[in-house]
Amino acid sequence: MIEDLLGANISHTEFLLVGFPEVYKYRRLLFLPFFLIYILVVVGNSLLLLVIRNTESLHSPMYILVSALAVVDIIVPTAIIPAMLLGFLFDLNEISLAGCLTQMFVTHFFSSVESTILLAMALDRFVAICKPLHYTEIMNSSMFLKLLLFTLIRSGTIMFALVALAASLSFCESNVIHHCYCDHMALVSLACDSIAKNNAMGLAVIICFVGIDISVIFFSYVKILHVVLGAAAGEDRWKAFHTCGTHLMVMMCFYFVGSITFLSRNLHIPIPIDINTFLGVMYIVFPASVNPIIYGARTKEIRNALVKMLKLNMNKVSIIKVSSIKI
């Protein structure tokens, strides 16, 4: 499919990903922090998935959404960080145009899926707290099927159009992408054709996913806080405010930083290349690394399930050791 889109493109077919050009000679020092962050992301989200999968009481709509978020938080960093690490260590920075477009689609598609999951999680909490008597009839398998269909249609259609427009361009000047991965505008800015349609599509993406999703999420949390603060007292009020505030701060980081990196070039925002590259990476890896804490370790049900699972495994190890000694 990607190859068909490239039919009219007679320009560069190979590109060089040069992230952090201002500190490029120190790139090997960047390997360790990004490697540790990636390990944290994979281990944290995998552990969260394992706990939810092995705990029957957590097989509810909210934790199904948390599981989906954990899967996305593994997929998106995996699409970019291993290649980044190879580039830092071994200067393996080359990528084909088809590979670049594929990475672009995977990264932006699953980032938009994450936005939809965050939206669904906010609505789930809104229904659970503000309309508890109707929760089971609203948050059912039919709703999840509709959510899946909505996600595939919205994210798939918009991101395919974004990549298709990028694939139709000619890249007849530089083939150096000043980024660690194939970000949309980082590639499109190298085109020698008019990129007015690409700029317009970039704005459409921000309006569709940031403008709509964050508005609904913010409204949901405001209503949740209104209900909870009206019913709770003292320490419970502070806990509710702290929980909602933490969720909103992480979400704002995801949306705000992502919007800046996505629009910085077509809005001509004067951000240094290294800072823009750093923001472009962190808007992906920061939420992925803190989500297991925000939605996992800080959630009482998951924390108790994790402790129970660890105790069970320790007891099994103790039994095996005792059996070995007797033999």
In words, what does this structure look like?
- With 327 residues, the protein is mainly alpha-helical.
- 75% of the residues lie in helices and 3% in strands.
- It has eleven helices and three strands.
- It has helices at 2-5, 31-54, 61-90, 97-130, 135-138, 141-167, 184-188, 196-231, 235-263, 273-297, 300-326; strands spanning 14-17, 94-96, 176-177.
- It has a three-stranded mixed β-sheet with strand order 2-1-3.
- Helix 2 (31-54) crosses helix 11.
- The longest helix is centred in the middle third of the chain and has 36 residues, at 196-231.
- It is globular.
- The protein starts with a helix and ends with a helix.
- The relative contact order is 0.14.
- The mean pLDDT is 85.
What tags apply to this protein structure?
single chain, 327 residues, mainly alpha, three-stranded mixed beta sheet, 3 strands, globular
Structure, briefly:
The protein is mostly helical.
Topology, element by element:
Elements: H1 2-5, E1 14-17, H2 31-54, H3 61-90, E2 94-96, H4 97-130, H5 135-138, H6 141-167, E3 176-177, H7 184-188, H8 196-231, H9 235-263, H10 273-297, H11 300-326
Parallel strand pairs: 1-3
Antiparallel strand pairs: 1-2
Helix pairs in contact: 2-3, 2-10, 2-11, 3-4, 3-10, 4-6, 4-8, 6-8, 8-9, 9-10
- SS class: mainly alpha
Proportion in helices: over 70%
Largest sheet: 3 strands, mixed
Mean pLDDT: 85
Shape, per Cα inertia axes: globular
> What are the segments in which pLDDT stays under 50 over at least 5 consecutive residues?
none
Q: What integer value in Å does the Rg equal?
A: 22 Å
Instruction: Quickly count the helices.
Output: 11
How many strands?
Answer: 3
Q: Assess the beta-strand content as a share of residues.
A: under 5%
From the N-terminal CA to the C-terminal CA, the straight-line distance is: 61 Å
Along the chain, the helix and strand elements come as HEHHEHHHEHHHHH
Please list the strands of the largest sheet in the order they lie side by side.
2-1-3
